[in-house]
Amino acid sequence: MENTVTEEIELDAEKELEVLHGGLEDNLTLIEDALGVVISFRGNKVFIKGEGQTVEKAKGFINGLRSVGRSGYLLRPEDIRHAVRAVSEGGEVSLPELFSTAIPSARKKLILPKTTVQKQYIEAIKGNDMVIGIGPAGTGKTYLAMAMAVNALLNKEVSRLVLARPAVEAGERLGFLPGDMYEKVSPYLRPLYDALFDMMDADRALKLIERSVIEIAPLAFMRGRTLNDSFIILDEAQNTTSEQMKMYLTRLGFNSKTVITGDITQIDLPPGRVSGLVEAERILAGIEGIKVVYFTERDVVRHKLVQEIVRAYERYEKRRAEPK
Asked: Residue of 1, 17, 28, 30 with fewest CB within 10 Å of its CB?
């Protein structure tokens, strides 16, 4: 191979090996496959062999991992897998920059953006009172919004969290469903509970729910309210009607922030009904203080097969839409 070079990195024996551990060999294999280099190690030294430019990129990546690890976060294999993909696809993305936007959770773990778009999303939420996240399932739209909301509550930036979803499967005619109100709405709100309990001890979360500090409710329950000093999340917003979306958008009160998430390729409204999310995307474009962030299949951070599934369905939909 022409222009082959070898670079050497000397690690701090125990601490640095721990930083790259997951085990070390598996993590280095991930870097090798993504960046096209050969990596080996002897003792506390890592050797990177390949073409000059790719070796420099791999060296920068490993040093970036070291820098992140020294901050106290133990990188897991999935963190490295997503990070190396972001660096290999994103050109000059630096790891310290990618991982600088960490969200502390109540469970004493850091929630890190795993793609550049996730990082942009977190920064958008920090800098705007209204953020719309649009993209396929598994891209972290709701999870990261929930992490930001919980963090804002813990830091006393807001006094209440309100988490809403349209119960479109029931047509929001909840009175026709069996059971008490909790039993009626629970199946539609379960994903929000799951995300909340992943970030906060369940007992603590349930106490906050009992005190209405955290409210998880169908979108229909928002009508007629003004929400001050609140962080509000509307999930699955593609299933709102035009009227519901307008109603929701006008609930925002003083010192409040909202994140609206949805996948405009998965609309479950009856035929002929316009998605409130699709309409709001057009109507709200260009308004200062409102930011729209778009996710793609590259941002899917669930099991690696989910990304392939999303891609396969997108290819299928394109083929089906082509004129015959």
From this structure: 1
24-35 helix and 52-70 helix, angle to the nearest 10 degrees: 140
Tell me the residue type at 320. R
Instruction: Specify the pTM.
Output: 0.75
Q: What is the DSSP string of 90-158?
A: SSS--HHHHTS--EE-TTS-EE---SHHHHHHHHHHHH-SEEEEE--TTSSHHHHHHHHHHHHHHTTS-
Q: pLDDT by residue (tens digit) across 277-296?
A: 999 999 998 899 999 999 99
At residue 156, φ and ψ (nearest 5 deg) are 60, 30
| Tokens representing residue 142 in the block | 């709701």
The 3-state DSSP class for residue 8 equals: strand
Do the Cβ atoms of 229 and 256 come closer than 8 Å?
A: yes
Helices (H), 242-322: 242-249, 276-283, 304-321
Residues 6+ apart with CB under 8 A from 323: none
| Residue closest to 8 by CA, chosen among 53, 51, 40 | 40
Question: 16 versus 133: which is more confidently predicted?
Answer: 133
Q: Rounded to whole angstroms, what are the CA distances from 7 to 16, 35, 133, 270?
A: 17, 14, 41, 60
pLDDT number for residue 197 = 86
What are 127's two structure tokens? Answer: 């800098």
The per-residue pLDDT for 34 is 77
**88 pLDDT above the threshold of 80:** no
- Residue 262: strand, helix, or coil: strand
Residues 257, 159: Cα–Cα separation, whole Å: 12
